[in-house]
Amino acid sequence: MRMVDLIEKKKLGGELSEEEIRFIVNGFTKGEIPDYQVSAFLMAVCFNHMTGDETFFLTDAMRKSGDVLDLSGISGVKVDKHSSGGVGDKTTLTLSPIVSSLGIPVAKMSGRGLGHTGGTIDKLESYPGFVTSIPEDRFIKQVNDIGICVAGQTKNLAPADKKLYALRDITATVAEPSLIASSIMSKKLSSGADAIVLDVKVGDGAFMKTVEEARHLAKIMVKLGKDAGKKTTAVLTSMEEPLGNAVGNILEVREAYESLKGNGPKDFMEVVYTLGTEMLILSGKYDTPESAKAAMEEVVENGSAAKKYEEWIIAQGGDPEIARDPEKFDHAKNALEIKAGQDGYVGSIKASDVGHAVMSLGGGRATKDDVIDLTVGTVLQKKVGDNVSSEDTIAVLYGNDEEKMRAAAEEIRNSYKIVGDAVPAPELILDIIR
Ligand code: URA
Questions:
Q1: End-to-end CA, the chain
Q2: What residues are labeled active site?
Q3: Are 145 and 290 contained in the same domain?
């Protein structure tokens, strides 16, 4: 088989066989097929797409390119949750201890942030001492002992995806549904869960800009999950404005913890409870959305979810004092209030600009080797639909470099569109695909 023939076939709109796709994935992973040929192939896929069968074969080949975690040593139905990435998305931090305290084991692999979107592993590393690189036997033991462990993806989890993703990132071939779906699902299917809930973000701060695109992606992923024998549900959630109020690592961790104490922002808790409902139903422990939601609200109200969170952070080496009292986290040196500057209603907040502003303060990575400043970020005081007057603070910015803060403040102010007429609070849950 020759790679050039397979590129030609895809360029002309042909359908590749399982064997041909395996040849590409294995050859590229081993370094036998060069980047420039795979780049040409990826671009051909962007123009001609992939059939359902091709996408399944690609996912399967990527999944089998490395280790496949065996979680059979953990009793109970393991339900994983994955977000396609957004701004202010600290859902895993709040949702995991809630479902864990209801007896659903959480054995989760999470990623780091790149570009304007954050990553759970970076957020967890806000706790001094927190360990995210965990051997498989310890990972399983922790889940059996306390019901929850969140680790970084091991190097050898779907290595084909790591190489392909890096190449897609620099060849403008990220936003093709068959490539996104196979990338996400190869990792999810390697992580050993019995069931998967996908949070597919839609809007300005997400890969998928429209509900139609997101629904298309979600349907591909749900089918890939089911074809691999896993119960899979996708929830389409809005990422037009940042989720919750805090954006930036330590600030988000603090908000996630406050949410477990019953003080979560309304939009954030709606996403947490909707995803949690789907997880609890897939686990088989709850039959109806109403009973699942009531159970989650109860563990937040009675404090057991917050206790589970502290136990989890401490079990993974996080500083116990900070785990119990987030006031003890490091703080950024400076705080800057951003004013509305005009009367009206918040019509929109461009999530990608807020994410970018926080990144420019040092809160995110432009390249994968950048070191993050965990203290910086912003806390939004006004969200879409809120009434504002000119002197109101719409957001507070936290940073360590005054010049960078001035530019970031300008970017955040410009991310807000203030309009004259009242705006309804945006719809957050856009669809559920089961
Ligand atoms: N997240 C992934 O893991 N892969 C993609 O291709 C896009 C988002």
A1: 39
A2: 82, 161, 168, 183, 187
A3: yes
Domain match, 91 and 145 both: yes
Look at 368 and 81; give whichever has higher pLDDT.
81
71 is a domain residue: no
Residue 25 scores a pLDDT above 90: yes
Tell me, what CATH number does 239's domain have?
Answer: 3.40.1030.10
Instruction: Read off φ and ψ for residue 348, nearest 5 degrees.
Output: -160, 155
- Determine which residue's CA is closest to atom 3 belonging to ligand 1: 184
- Of 324, 350, 367, the one marking the end of a domain is 324
Ligand 1 shell residues, CB under 6 Å? 84-85, 165, 174, 179-180, 183-184, 207
Total domain count, the chain:
3
Taking residues 378-397, what's their average pLDDT? Answer: 98
37 and 180 together in one domain: no
* Distance (Å) from CA 356 to ligand 1 centroid: 19
Radius of gyration for the chain, computed over Cα atoms and rounded to the nearest angstrom? 22
pTM for this model (two decimals): 0.93
Beta bridge partners of 157: 67
Contacts of 312 (CB under 8 A, 6+ apart): 96, 97, 100, 146, 148, 149, 150
